């Protein structure tokens, strides 16, 4: 197998989508929906900013003792393409005290099961939450496979053993970045089809899978849709931050944020000792971008480069990095801008705390 | 919605190429269209900030979004490739290319992205690194891992093990 062989194979398969014209109407609708969502969240957030500003002024007037971090004045969310106000020093961002109470953990939204003996399940699920996860399982029929399609696309294929064996399929909604502000799909209703087949999926055609559907089955099929819509409680460099991160595996609550001064290329954050695990995550707002030179923020923990990219939970989709900080003693975190120029971007760090209760 | 005539022209001109790349990444037409629309929607909001040719920017969104979807979808799931409709009768060479397609579909998202960017987009290793936002060394190692897996699969579909991989 040579590179040319691979190149030819890719070129041939790329022609499978020849003639698929762009759906400009659908694209415009999607953009319009995303714009509406941004405006709605901006409206809600402005109200929160006003309340926080009043709280800050009140505390200052009463002469707070300064022993605890005060909610910093929240910067006004920045419209796309507009620079944020100049920051000479790092800006602390603290969520409101009741942020965690506002957040609702992920919950079961709906489920589909098959009638006893029936090998196929067809249905429509309505999903209105911002973050959605699907879990499919199949038990009670050795030698069969569960096949799940959503909106006509394959989602998962699982073996269906005789003993109880909860399977798992994660990712019903591709836009399930937990904290991103532009949840841009407006699709609410999703077509679901589940079936069991005696044809093993690898290397089987669609027709062969369908041909393997038995007339009756002892299998129990179940699809669960889990979801939540955590509220936005702060902004970091103009991006919204929600109270709660990905709850499918573990809950992470937003505890504190630090915006770097304008046009600097590094920021040092001290993390005090803590009885809970923490997550440090960067977010970057770009003002200029040259292809191949997009700035990227590294995370250094106690002198070691530790960041991971694209790990959940996430604030904004593009270019965030994540570093896990286990419970225990104090740590020094340094954020370093690499590539590009510091003036091309504003960046910040968000600290999340694990809620394992 | 504000008008951006240059954006519309860009979409019309580049949609076919972006869709082909998205399809090679996702192995699913519906998901590929979804991926392209996602990338173009994000491009819309960044249109005024992108300097020069927007294509590297939107290509980067395409690949990183695909990797993100893949990470969430396969984190606790049995990995099987997309089931494709395969014609019953086919020449041996075509059969090998279909099997390459299946093998590529079994690669993790990042390795598959490296293969698509190198052999379909014909990008250099530094260019691939820029798209993926990683080092050239990471591109090299991901490429080597992908080739080892493809070579191992090729050994199971009757391809001579003496045939060299780049």
Describe the structure.
The complex is a heterodimer of chains A (357) and B (166). Chain A has 357 residues and is α+β, with helices and mostly antiparallel strands. Chain A is built from four helices and 19 strands. Chain A has helices at residues 3-14, 24-62, 99-102, 206-211, and strands spanning 91-93, 107-113, 120-126, 131-139, 144-150, 153-160, 189-197, 220-228, 232-236, 239-242, 251-259, 266-271, 278-286, 296-301, 304-305, 308-309, 321-325, 331-338, 345-355. Chain A is globular. The N and C termini of chain A lie far apart (52 Å). Chain B has 166 residues and is mostly helical. Chain B is 68% helix and 0% strand. In chain B, α1 (5-26) packs parallel to α3, α2 (29-46) crosses α3 and α5 (109-119) crosses α7. Chain B is globular. The termini of chain B are far apart. The interface between A and B is large, with 76 and 81 residues.
By helix and strand content of chain B, what is the structural category?
mainly alpha
Determine the strand fraction of chain B and express it as a percent band. under 5%
Estimated radius of gyration of chain B:
17 Å
What gyration radius of chain A follows from the Cα positions, in whole Å?
24 Å
Rounded to the nearest angstrom, the distance between the terminal CA atoms of chain B is 48 Å
How many H/I helices of chain A? 4
Mean pLDDT of chain A: 72
User: Oligomeric form of this entry?
Assistant: heterodimer
Rounded mean pLDDT score of chain B: 74
Q: Secondary-structure element order of chain B, as H and E?
A: HHHHHHH
Low-confidence stretches of chain A: 42-80, 163-186, 315-319
How big a fraction of the residues of chain A is strand? Answer: 35-45%
Q: Which pair of chains has the greatest number of interface residues, and how are they split between the two chains? A: A-B, 76 and 81 residues
Helix content range of chain A = 10-25%
Shape of chain B: globular
């Amino acid at each position: 197998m040579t590179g040319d062989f691979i190149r030819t194979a890719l070129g041939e398969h790329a022609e499978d989508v020849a003639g698929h014209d762009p759906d400009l109407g659908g694209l415009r609708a999607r953009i319009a929906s995303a714009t509406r969502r941004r405006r709605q969240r901006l409206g809600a957030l402005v109200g929160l900013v006003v309340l926080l500003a009043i709280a800050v002024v009140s505390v200052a007037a009463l002469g707070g003792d300064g022993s605890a971090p005060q909610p910093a004045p929240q910067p006004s969310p920045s419209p796309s393409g507009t620079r944020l106000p100049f920051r000479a020093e790092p800006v602390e961002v603290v969520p409101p005290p009741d942020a965690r109470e506002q957040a609702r953990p992920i919950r079961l939204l709906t489920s589909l099961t098959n009638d006893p003996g029936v090998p196929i399940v067809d249905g429509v699920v309505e999903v209105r939450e911002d973050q959605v996860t699907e879990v499919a399982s199949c038990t009670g029929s050795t030698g069969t496979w569960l096949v799940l399609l959503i909106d006509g696309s394959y989602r998962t294929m699982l073996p269906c053993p005789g003993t109880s064996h909860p399977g798992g399929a994660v990712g019903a909604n591709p836009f399930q970045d937990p904290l991103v502000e532009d949840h841009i799909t407006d699709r609410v209703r999703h077509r679901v089809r589940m079936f069991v087949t005696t044809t093993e999926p690898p290397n089987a055609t669609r027709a062969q899978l369908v041909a393997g559907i038995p007339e009756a089955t002892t299998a129990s099929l179940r699809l669960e849709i889990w979801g939540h819509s955590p509220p936005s409680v702060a902004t970091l460099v103009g991006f919204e931050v929600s109270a709660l991160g990905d709850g499918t595996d573990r809950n992470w609550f937003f505890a504190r944020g630090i915006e770097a001064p304008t046009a600097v290329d590094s920021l040092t954050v001290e993390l005090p000792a803590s009885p809970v695990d923490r997550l440090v995550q960067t977010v970057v707002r770009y003002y200029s971008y040259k292809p191949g030179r997009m700035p990227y923020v590294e995370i250094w923990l106690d002198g070691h480069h530790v960041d991971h990219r694209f790990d959940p939970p996430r604030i904004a989709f593009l270019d965030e990095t994540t570093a896990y900080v286990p419970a225990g003693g104090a740590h020094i975190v340094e954020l370093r801008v690499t590539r590009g120029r510091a003036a091309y971007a504003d960046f910040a760090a968000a600290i999340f705390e694990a809620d394992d209760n | 919605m504000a008008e951006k005539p240059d954006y519309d022209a860009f979409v019309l001109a580049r949609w076919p190429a972006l869709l082909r790349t998205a399809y090679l990444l996702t192995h699913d037409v519906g998901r590929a269209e979804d991926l392209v629309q996602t990338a173009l929607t994000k491009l819309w909001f960044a249109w005024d900030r992108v300097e020069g040719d927007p294509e590297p920017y939107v290509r980067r969104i395409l690949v990183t979004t695909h990797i993100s979807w893949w990470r969430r979808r396969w984190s606790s799931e049995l990995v099987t490739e997309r089931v494709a409709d395969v014609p019953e009768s086919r020449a041996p060479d075509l059969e090998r290319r279909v099997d390459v397609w299946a093998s590529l579909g079994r690669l993790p998202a990042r390795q598959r992205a490296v293969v698509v960017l190198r052999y379909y987009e014909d990008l250099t290793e530094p260019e691939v690194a820029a798209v993926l936002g990683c080092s050239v060394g990471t591109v090299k190692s991901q490429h080597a891992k992908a080739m080892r897996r493809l070579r191992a699969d090729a050994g199971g579909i009757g391809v001579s093990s003496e045939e060299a991989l780049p």
